[in-house]
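Researcher: We're teaching a course module on how sequence relates to structure. For the next exercise, students receive a sequence and then see the predicted structure as tokens, so they can try to spot secondary structure elements on their own. Here is the exercise chain.
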Amino acid sequence: MITNSAIYQLIEKDDFYHCSQSLYSALDWSRIGAEILLRSKLGETDLIFSQAKLVNKLYELETKSIFKVLQTYHSEENTLKDLLFINIFPSTILHHEFPAFIKKMSTDFPAKRQNIVFEIVNTDYIEDISSLKGRINLLKELGYLIAIDDVGKGWSTLDLIIELEPHYIKLDRFFSRNLSNSKQKQQMIRSLINYAHNSDIKVVLVGIEQETDLSIAKYLGVDICQGFLLDKPKPISQSV
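Model: And here is the predicted structure for the students to work with:
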């Protein structure tokens, strides 16, 4: 169990770090970027975020995390060359202080905003999609890219795909498990790819662990692949 006090200390002392997991083009298997993952000695990341949300500290944790990532890749040692997928909760984007925060980040770290992909975590039911769309448009105007995470899991993401017009959609790992033996999953992925490509959206399949599933993903037309088969998360200092 993660206590409230532990969450407060984690945020106050920036007692967390980041790992990255590479993403690869299914066209030629070149590395096109990486997803950034928050880690801490407190335990599982999902539990940390859940507890931070319970004590109304999720916004503070996420914005500190984003700042730390951008600061890292703004340094000369870790120059950003590829796409950088950064997870973010809808509640953070909708927070009343977020526009000022992201504009300041854009001023403080102006280089290569077009390489930053804000990956919307699909765990919360979103009542006001119109307001979220407005904030997403702000991010696009500032030059950032948008992805929708966990497509096919939790609350419906089809409305988000249509309303938010992301640059990327990331299919939930449910689709990659035993993909080579599931005609139903293959058919669903084909349908999603057909819509996405007609809307100029690239499709990412995550959680790939078997070579047969990787082969089918490429055959179906998935644009980008991610998973333990290709690369495991490692501290940023070891991956740049």
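Model: If you want an answer key for the exercise: The chain has nine helices and nine strands. The mean pLDDT is 92.
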